[in-house]
Amino acid sequence: MSNKEKHWDKTRGLMMITLAIWFIFGYVVFMFGTSLNEGSFLGYPLAYYMCAQGSIIAFVVLIFWFANRQEKIDAEFGFTEKEGD
Amino acid sequence: MFKGNFIQNLPKIYGTYTGGFLAFIILMAIAENAGVSKETIGILFVAFTVCIYAIIGYLSRTVQVDAYYVAGRQVPTVFNGMATAADWMSGASFVAMAGGIYFGGYTYMAFLIGWTGGYVLVSSLLAPYLRKFGCYTVPDFIGTRYGGNLARFCAVVVLALASFTYVTAQINATGTIASRALQIPFELGVWVGLVSILLCSMLGGMRAVTWTQVAQYIVLIIAYLIPVFWISSSGNYGIFPHLMLGDEVAKLGELEATFGLKENSKEAMAAMTFADGSPVKGLKYIVNSHAGVPDGAMAAWKFISLVICMMVGTASLPHILMRYFTTPSVKAARKSVAWSLFFIALLYTSAPMLATVSKLSLMDPSLATGIIGKSIAEVQSIDWYQAWNAQKWMHIQDFDNDGKLALNEFFMRGDIVVLATPEIAGLPYVISGLVAAGGMAAAMSTADGLILAIANALSHDIYFKIIDPKADVRKRLLVARALLVVIGAAGAFVASMKLTSILGAVAWAFDFAMSGLFFPLVLGVWWKRATRQGAIAGMIAGLGSGTIYLYMVKFAENANENIILGIDHLRFGIIGASVCFVVMVVVSLMTPEPDKATQDMIDEVRVPSGKTVLGKQH
Q: Is the per-residue pLDDT at B12 higher than 50?
């Protein structure tokens, strides 16, 4: 497998993991809204909290994490951009 | 005054600007105390901010193609994040979202999830690759990846349809705010709004829009957060509302149980009239639980299907994707998506808090501001009730004739929650002026991004790439600017006819975009086998089936009976995008695979280093 193919393999893997986490916070959580709401966080019903803040914060953290991971993958295979490219 | 170039000085420039804006707010507060009238303060707020944007627009004028289309690809990560946040947060986010949560509760909050989670798709599937491609517009990518003018043309059609649906709602919002703040008729307000919007974008294209959007973000976030924090601490709900409103949410649940969430009959609602005999239209009352999750699989599916549409739609909207063409590198494009969502989250996580405190201040009988349970005559004598009732944005109907106000007897427009809460909670008028300026900034920044997206696609993809590829720079930019005016005017004309409610149109834009563009864009990067014929067939079939479905569930006879699996007119993109996907895959597999040059191009797009696929100027 060429360098480019290995790089793309890892990139695709990271994309899958990112979207799996995204799927959990965007969809799975809200499939169980009724039972989730019986729990609470900071005094808020849990499903309400996930809507109002929880999932949104998770998305922000997820994208920062993804960007950093992808930069590491690019560096590993020597595809980091040079200044002035 | 400043050393170094413009980009290096950005933090200083916008720091000074923010300080100046805060000083202006204080000045207005002093003016209010000195007896300057509410009307004057409202006019000053809107006029002052719009003048600043116009000055920034003028200073950013340019005669270079890459500055006009992609701001010279030198917008730093964090600033592009702010500009995207302003580009993204429309009049609907600023004015209508808290009101939507106020009346819709948990169910409505699907919009919050949908309008944030889409950025995960943008960052992992699209933004870095489109940036590496080096295109000026979204159809530019489609046209080059798949080859041929037909693919490019189809992408322009989807882009224009989705963005135009969206932009009329934004011009409508600028018109509403301008007419209220400047005390002029709505029809005139729309045109005043349009002129303000064009002042920001005409001379400098993307470059001017970028720097005004950063300025508009600063105004809109200040205007949103100050009232939330102020009301929350002055009402003793907690000085940091996001962490401290758990008790208040619980209290709302108790009050809902005490007062009862009663649904009014359609006949009773239709029979309501204002004092002058005109029918009560577009006003809502509280019937949904604030934090309660509705039971059943269908309710969960309705929530999730709306989230799907808004997320996938986010990742297909060209005015958002094109913001990531302006960063200096692929790496910066990725980080910039993260910053965008961070800046968006500041407002989105505050909207439910604003809805909570404003709902509680009206519902809690132990508070001086509480009105539910009080005598109707007493409520009708309150100043703000009389003012909003005269505007036909608020109404009381004593269904059970007991003289006391019940939860289902108090009606208002959703927009009031943001626009009027400062006044209802007893904050000084300067805050209401600030909120008007924030709403104006939100609507203007989105309108600018949308009009520019359409005009750029028409001038670059249709005029330059298809009609006259030999046109010189001067002529190209002249055409681009002329189109900007024409599209803006068309949008203002449609807006002045008041055809749709703000939210309906906004959701449709997402559905149109996802029906036609999502899979051609994503598969263009992620599936080498995707062919030109597949993409063209997918775009036509997706947009076509989505539009036909929208017609069937919204405008046809017995429209409600045509709804399949709860997919109503807000969610028609699910049908369109699924059809697009299937058709695109099937047709791609039936046609010969793309040639070597195209495959090499895709390989090149997938690595960040090296030159962009399209030249710096093309």
A: yes
For residue B16, give every residue at least 6 positions away whose Cβ sits within 8 Å of its Cβ, in sequence order, or none.
Answer: none
Q: Which regions of chain A are under pLDDT 50?
A: 85
- Considering only residues 269 to 308 of chain B, which have any Cβ-Cβ distance to chain A shorter than 8 Å? 290-293, 295, 300, 303-304, 307-308
Q: Considering only the beta carbons, identify the residue of A15, A66, A74 that sits closest to B608.
A: A74
Using the Cα atoms of residue B114, residue B115, residue B121 and residue B126 in order, give the sign of their dihedral: positive
Which of B102, B122, B129, B249 is best to mutate for the A interface (most A CBs within 10 A)? B249
Whether B100 shows a pLDDT value over 70: the answer reads yes
Our CA-based measurement puts residue B189 at a distance from the nearest CA of chain A, in whole angstroms, of 34
Structure tokens at B478: 């002249």
CATH superfamily of B10-271+283-362+426-605: Sodium/glucose cotransporter (1.20.1730.10)
| Pairing mode of beta strands B394-396, A44-45 | unpaired
Q: How far apart are CA B159 and CA B317, in angstroms?
A: 8
> Considering CB atoms only, which of B125, B293, B331 is closest to A47?
B293
Cβ–Cβ under 8 Å, residues B310 and B121: no
At B74 the pLDDT is 87
Interfacial B residues in 218-247 facing A (CB < 8 Å): 242-247
Q: Which residues pair with B564 in a beta bridge?
A: B567
